[in-house]
Amino acid sequence: MATQLLPPQVIEEACEWAIMHGVAFRQGDNSARHCPFSFAPMVMEKKAFAHLQFVTPLIAKLVDAVSEDADFLQQQLAPMAQADAFFGRLMGLHLQIHGSAAQRARGEVIQPLRQPLLLMRTDYMDDRQQGAKVIEFNGIAAGMAPFGQRASELHRFLQRQWPVEFTRWSAASQGELVNNAGIDQLAKAIEQAARRIQADFAFQEPQQGAPTFVMVVQANEDNVYDQHLLELALQARGVRTVRRTFAQLHHTLLSGENGRLLLDGIGAVDVVYLRAGYQCQDYWLDDEKECCHTLGQTRRMIEQHRVALNATLGQQLATSKTMQMVLTMMPAQAYLQWGLTIEEANAVKTVLAEMKPLNPETIAWFFDHAQQKDWVLKNQGEGGGHCVFGSAIGEKLASLHENEYNAWLLMQRLYPHERDTPALAIRQAAATQVDDLVSEIGLFTAFYQGEPMTDYAGYAGYLIRSKPASENEGGIHSGQGILDSLMVV
Q1: Which of 1, 101, 419, 474 sees the fewest Cβ atoms within 10 Å?
Q2: pTM, whole model, 2 decimals?
Q3: Which domain holds residue 375?
């Protein structure tokens, strides 16, 4: 008779806790299913996590400054924008808003009124040999901080309610669960930004009500509860929350006095937060022959008003894979032009993995000299399905035309620690043992106009997603990814 992994009552309580606390995806019939999750947390050395908490806000500080350096963005990303149609459209919008370097030098450009609110997630893997290294920057639609906090709270509940079972499946017998205040810290940052914008208009709005936060979302998406958890926290702080797609905003955004952004039927808008806008389909209108044109102008309009905005076009460009590569290849001394000290710059360099541009010379090196299994081929896409591994890299390189090279790059492949003991995944109210679970940890940061906006010098919580080592894609929505939390030893 097979050994029971968990008593049914434990699984039932855990899944009900998850759904009750919003750790769920919406189904087509408006029911909900719980997100898959690990029964016990991943383990990391305390000093390693402390280093990530220290260095990640420095990365955000760097990216925040780079995102406002229009000359640098346009110079460095022009080749990539020519090779990638979507980023070409983003660069076109950026040029419309900021003008060219020549136009700026001649003083012909009126700078956009939007105020940058950088809500960023920096994703890492803890490599077996080199320690934690950055996988990617996420500066637009950098979500799931609420799920990160709830996963941490779920593990505390299981540790307290079912201590024997929790200890049995924990990777460390002695360890400390790490608090995660992702919801609270992001809500605090957004509220502060909203109230600052609102205060700018107090002279023309003597009877101000609650500040207003607009979340730009995708139509008919299933990951709505993570978004609603953030909205609930904002509502508790006295902020009015509104959800709209780009298509819904197109005919309803209006211009008020002194650059005030207005929304028909709602009134003045203080913060706009994009949970959409990282792919062509977010801007697509059914009757439009050219993708992104009309709704791209809606995004341009937002940037031309005095509103706290995440993500600005500059932020999206600055967190692209190509800009990650550019910054990685630069010496630490170069970061000083964006306000970092040499000590801060050297700290950032400790977590950047090697990256290479795709060109004929790099391709020849890859085939003739590289350990091909130790590299990943990436394009500019967000989410799963945009990485090529192993023997498939050569096949993909052979299929690319030279004018496509700048949309791709090579990155050192990271081999994270597998858990020392078997782990337990809870999916669709059933337990499955995973013998080779590995984890990816994302740290959130919040900066407004270059200023850290949290209780922890800009750090704003974490998100951990785990998957079997044999799986290349570890998304929570599809594939074998599961929510997780952190224990330090």
Answers
A1: 1
A2: 0.96
A3: 8-413+440-488
